[in-house]
Design goal:
The complex is a heterodimer of chains A (173) and B (161). In chain A, 10% of the residues lie in helices and 39% in strands. Chain A is built from two helices and twelve strands. In chain A, strand 8 (89-100) and strand 9 (106-118) form a beta hairpin. The mean pLDDT of chain A is 91. Chain B has 161 residues and is mainly beta. Chain B has one domain: Nucleic acid-binding proteins (OB fold (Dihydrolipoamide Acetyltransferase, E2P), Beta Barrel), CATH 2.40.50.140. Chain B is 9% helix and 40% strand. Chain B is built from one helix and eleven strands, in the order E-E-H-E-E-E-E-E-E-E-E-E. A five-stranded antiparallel β-sheet of chain B has the order 9-7-6-10-11, with no helix packed on it. A four-stranded mixed β-sheet of chain B has the order 5-3-4-8, with helices on one face. Classes of the chains: A mainly beta (173), B mainly beta (161). Strand 2 (33-37) of chain A pairs antiparallel with strand 1 of chain B, so a sheet runs across the interface.
Chain lengths: 173, 161
Amino acid sequence: MTSRIAKFPGVELGSKEFYEGKVTQVRSRPDARYEFSAGEAISRFLEEMQKGKLIARTCNGCRRVLFPPRMFCEQCYRPTDEWRYIRDTGTIETFSISYLDRDAKRITEPILVGVVSLDGASPKMGMMHYFGEMTKEDIRIGMRVKAVWKPPEERKGSVLDIRYFRPLKEGEA
Amino acid sequence: MTFLERTTDVKRLRHVDVDMSVDYIYTSGIAGEVFFKALRDEGRILAVRCPVCKVNQLPPRMFCERCFTELKDFVDVPAEGRVAAVTVAKLDRRGRPLPSPEVFAFVTFKGIQVGGLIHRLLVLPEKAKVGLAVRARLKPKEARTGTILDIEGFEPAASQP
């Protein structure tokens, strides 16, 4: 229906009008700040990230190793049981070659993102992260990868304490 | 069911800070554009006249709200207005206490039957009274940007030469 309308009535405004001051305007930014709590399991997870370690939770009901850790097993409907460290190596489960950055801006060099299932956790359990030291031609599902950590003084207790996952080199455990 | 293992040290519980960047640009619209450009470039305050209702309206708008006639006849607002209502603000826009109270007024003008302007009233709170004759004090031309803040406020008409 709208495809048949060649020109809409009204005044068309573009970035030229907005940013070169062609039209009178008021600019504003609301003070929209908030904080959300990471909760019991993720707080411990972030604390361990800062130390350069990955931690999971085990469930004695289904015998799974849950990563990222959670205090409650959604399969058994019971609290999980123990903390367990897992390794920082894993396998690419799925990936995207993205030509949009985090602010949805168009970029020419794509960023590689995807899900890594980590060694030591139950199958298909892992985290979403960036991939580095590989090209968009190299990346494939099933590729073995290892975390590249930031130096300890730069870590903040964030998922980004890992810079990215790089290909696992031959002979590396 | 309870969780036997529980963090009791609140400092170990993490949180995430987020600052939403939701910038926006609000344009003045067709009638507002005429109003703000006249204010910025010529220092004039314009109202708009409805040719059908014979009513002047401020701030200018595109359509008469009584008869829906499109409005195009801009007229000058008299230099002197009258305070129709006052309020004294003790908190700023974000609710923080102000160092000194600020006075705001709704100013109406003779011959402008509909509307008026809400702005700062540049008098001490105890002097702010309904009925006070006021004039707009404009910013110098080079400092004007085409917003309502091109008017610094209204001051008593008597204090001007």
